[in-house]
Each structure stands twice: as structure tokens, then as C-alpha cells.
Design goal:
mainly alpha; 59 residues
């Protein structure tokens, strides 16, 4: 039962993404840019944490 629900949710998200891309490509591009900026910020934060941890956790 849970697998079918997951498939339905994924399908709905894909259909929604295609709808947004087709109806407003500029907004879709903005969403992609926001997502990549978020991923970049997260990677930078992980790098900062790892540097802090390797330095012995000094403030």
C-alpha cells in the first residue's frame, strides 16, 4: 500500500514540474537556480563544519 502511495506522489510531482516548465519557463528556471543555491550553501556549511571538526572543534 505504501509503495503505491509513493508512486502516486512521485507521479503527481513530476506532472506538476512539467506543468510549471511548460506554462512558465522563466519561473521554472528561477526555481532551479534557487535549488542549486540551496545545495551550494549546504555544501559550504558542511565544508565549514568539517574544517571546524578537523581543527579540533576550536571556536
Amino acid at each position: 500500500m505504501a509503495v503505491n502511495a509513493k508512486k502516486i506522489v512521485v507521479f503527481a510531482l513530476v506532472v506538476f514540474a512539467m506543468y510549471v516548465i511548460i506554462t512558465d519557463p522563466a519561473r521554472a528556471a528561477d526555481y532551479v537556480q534557487i535549488a542549486f543555491e540551496g545545495i551550494s550553501d549546504a555544501a559550504g556549511a558542511i565544508g565549514d563544519f568539517m574544517t571546524w571538526a578537523v581543527d579540533g572543534g576550536k571556536s
